[in-house]
Each structure stands twice: as structure tokens, then as C-alpha cells.
UniProtKB/TrEMBL annotation:
Coiled coil: none annotated. It comes from Streptomyces olivoverticillatus. It catalyses: Co-precorrin-5B + S-adenosyl-L-methionine = Co-precorrin-6A + S-adenosyl-L-homocysteine. Belongs to the CbiD family. This is Cobalt-precorrin-5B C(1)-methyltransferase. It holds the Pfam family CbiD. Pathway: Cofactor biosynthesis; adenosylcobalamin biosynthesis; cob(II)yrinate a,c-diamide from sirohydrochlorin (anaerobic route): step 6/10. Transmembrane segments: none annotated.
Length: 382
């Protein structure tokens, strides 16, 4: 086996985002496709193309350096590609994605296997049947297309087994949604375009959608979108929900609501920190601090509706933090937490646009204490 430096120059990896100056990266699916292409080429020609160039679904043609290569005497070849996620904080950045390609008898087609570090689907509701390797449909198509192109160029049949593996993939997967989605043993091989756009958060949003799919497939009629692990624990304590009914929505309240609007469940609980849910109450669907702020003027208006005096409302509006505003109101008997929860529920219902989903909201403080609740309400006030 020949190991090359992970930092070896790779053509196309200096692509910039015009509006931010941040580098694009490549998905695990693109890396697996490049590794497959190089390995199959070596099986047919005896030589590894390095770098290896592939064509992405939208026509881009990046080149990838080989980080590992091995040509066996038993009709197998292995290539490893180090994933470069560009400037995106991707948990799989730097992972070594390997493809081991083995020749199969004519007529066998392309067969996919999960090697070490790649998960296997164990629950329904995902784009792949139970028992299949967690190699998503677009990467499968990309690999199949490139196998066909290499076969046509070098006289192969195109009948191969492709085993994709990821070094330390099982460990990496613990930082992803895979265990909750029933994808066990490692990460998924993902990507619809082959490109990772920095800070697009597309992988997280896709995980939210798959979480809804898995919950529905399991027959769950009540799910909870939670901003973090503390709010998840509270949702479980209040409603007794199983793990596969919990959606780690983080800051992406809009992603949960828009997907459930198209794929409804009977009931949605939104649970999170008071400050984050005050942003939802004020109409923000992205709750990240870089993209939305706590509107203390809005909190002051809610406090007034809840019976706050003029001086209390003014104190709320000039408070340093949302938590201070909450504490000021609590000391004067004004239920600001409940008012925020009700407003967040109303905003969620507005985004759901009449979908047959009842929504309730739980606001907590940093210690996990419930500081506000809104009872379930469905479309039309039901």
C-alpha cells in the first residue's frame, strides 16, 4: 500500500464562494465516487490515476489526490480519499473514505457493501430498505455511472462489488443522527450535488427530514422538535416520548415546521430554551445567534399584554438578556414564559398553514426547568 500526504495538492479544491470567500468542499459521496473510479481503473489497466477526476451531477469536474492505494492479486483494488469539507465545520472533514472494488461475473451488475465505518439501515422510513448499506441513492448512482464510463473506456464489463469504508467511521457516527435514525455501525455516504457548501447546514436539515420519516414509519403520531439535549430530556419527561420521536432541530425550527407541513403528524411539541423560542415567537425560523437576535421590544410588548406595568415593560425592554427579562417578570407575577410559549405556538401554526398538526410548546431555562408552556392547539384553534 502506498500512503500519500493528506495535504497533497488536489485540483479544484480552491473553489471559492463568491459572496463569502469560503471554500467549497466535497461530500462523502463524491469522495467514494472518486475512490471507486480510481480503484476500478486500476483493476482494468494496472495503473491508478492520481489525481482522479470525476463528474458531479451538475457538471463540475473536481480532481482528487489518492491518499491510499492497493492493487491486489485477487481481483480487488482499494483507493482511499481524504475528505476535504472546505471551510464547513463538517464532522467528517479529514476522514479517509475508502472504496474497495472487486470484479464480479458478467451480469452481476453493481453491488454495494458496507465496510468498516459505514452504517447499515435497520429501521424503515429512510430512502434505502432495511439491511442495505447506508450509501444514499445519489452517491450510488454516481458510482454506478462512473463504473460504466471506466468500463466503456477500458473494456470492462461494469460488473463489480463496491465496498465503501471509512476509517474511524463508527466513532464519527456518534456525533451524527445515525444512531437515532437506526443507521448502525458507522456514517452514511451522502450528497446530492457532490459539493459541501460552507455553513449551509444542509446535512443537519436533511437529518431532521429523515428523523421525521423514521418517526412516521415507526407509527409515531407525536414528535418533539428540540433545540438541544436538555430540552430533549424535558420533552421525554413531560410526554414520555421514545428516542425515535425526538428531532434534534438545533436552530432550524423552520426546517422542522416546513417538513412536517408536507409530512404531517398528529402532534408536534416544540421544546427549547426561553431565549431561542422567543425568537420563534417573534417570527424567526432560524434561531442561531448569528442570524437572529432576542427582540426585547417584542418581549416588552408581550409582558404588557400579560399585565405588566409601564415600568416593568420598560425594564424588560432594556434588560441585558432574555433571561433577565424573564426573571424581572417572574418577580412581578407576569407569566412571560407562558406568553412566549403561546406566541411561539401561534407562529409554528402559521408556518404549518393549516396542516393537521396540533402544536404545544415548552420553554426551559439553562438548568432544564420549565419556565413556560402552551397547551396543544391545532389549525383553526382546535
Amino acid at each position: 500500500m502506498t500512503e500519500t500526504a493528506a495535504g497533497k495538492a488536489v485540483g479544484g479544491r480552491t473553489a471559492q464562494l463568491a459572496h463569502t470567500g469560503l471554500r467549497h468542499g466535497w461530500t462523502t459521496g463524491a469522495c467514494a465516487t472518486a475512490a471507486t473510479t480510481a480503484a476500478y481503473t486500476a483493476l482494468l489497466t494496472g495503473e491508478f490515476p492520481d489525481p482522479v477526476t470525476i463528474t458531479l451531477p451538475k457538471g463540475q469536474t473536481p480532481a482528487f489526490a489518492l491518499a491510499a492505494e492497493e492493487l491486489g492479486a485477487d481481483g480487488r483494488a482499494m483507493v482511499g480519499i481524504v475528505k476535504d469539507a472546505g471551510d464547513d465545520p463538517d464532522v467528517t472533514h479529514g476522514a479517509l473514505i475508502r472504496a474497495t472494488v472487486r470484479l464480479l461475473p458478467p451480469g452481476s451488475g453493481v453491488v454495494f457493501r458496507a465496510g468498516p465505518g459505514v452504517g447499515t439501515v435497520t429501521r424503515p422510513g429512510l430512502p434505502l430498505p432495511v439491511g442495505e448499506p447506508a450509501i444514499n441513492p445519489v452517491p450510488r448512482r454516481m458510482m454506478g455511472d462512473h463504473v460504466a464510463e471506466v468500463a466503456a473506456r477500458h473494456g470492462g464489463s461494469g460488473d463489480v462489488e463496491i465496498e465503501v469504508s471509512v476509517d474511524h467511521g463508527e466513532e464519527i457516527a456518534r456525533s451524527t443522527w445515525n444512531p437515532r435514525l437506526g443507521i448502525l455501525g458507522g456514517i452514511s455516504i451522502l450528497g446530492t450535488t457532490g459539493i459541501v457548501v460552507p455553513y449551509s447546514c444542509s446535512a443537519w436539515i436533511d437529518s431532521i427530514r429523515r428523523g421525521v420519516d423514521v418517526a412516521r414509519a415507526a407509527g409515531r403520531t407525536h414528535v418533539a422538535g428540540c433545540t438541544g439535549s436538555t430540552s430533549e430530556k424535558v420533552a421525554v419527561a413531560v410526554h414520555g416520548l421514545p428516542e425515535d420521536a425526538l428531532l434534534d432541530m438545533g436552530d432550524f425550527a423552520g426546517a422542522v415546521l416546513k417538513y412536517i407541513r408536507r409530512h404531517p403528524v398528529d402532534r408536534l411539541t416544540v421544546a427549547g430554551g426561553f431565549a431561542k423560542l422567543s425568537k420563534l415567537a417573534a417570527g424567526h425560523l432560524d434561531l442561531h445567534s448569528a442570524r437572529s437576535q432576542v427582540n426585547k421590544g417584542f418581549l416588552a410588548e408581550l409582558a404588557r399584554r400579560g399585565g405588566a406595568s409601564g415600568d416593568l415593560a420598560e425594564a424588560v425592554e432594556t434588560a441585558n438578556t432574555g433571561l433577565e427579562a424573564l426573571q424581572l417578570c417572574a418577580a412581578r407575577g407576569v407569566p412571560l414564559g407562558d406568553l412566549v410559549a403561546a406566541a411561539a405556538r401561534d407562529e409554528a401554526l402559521a408556518v404549518l398553514r393549516g396542516a393537521p398538526v396540533a402544536v404545544d410548546v415548552i420553554c426551559i431555562d439553562r438548568a432544564g426547568t420549565i419556565v413556560g408552556q402552551a397547551e396543544p392547539l391545532g389549525p383553526g384553534g382546535r
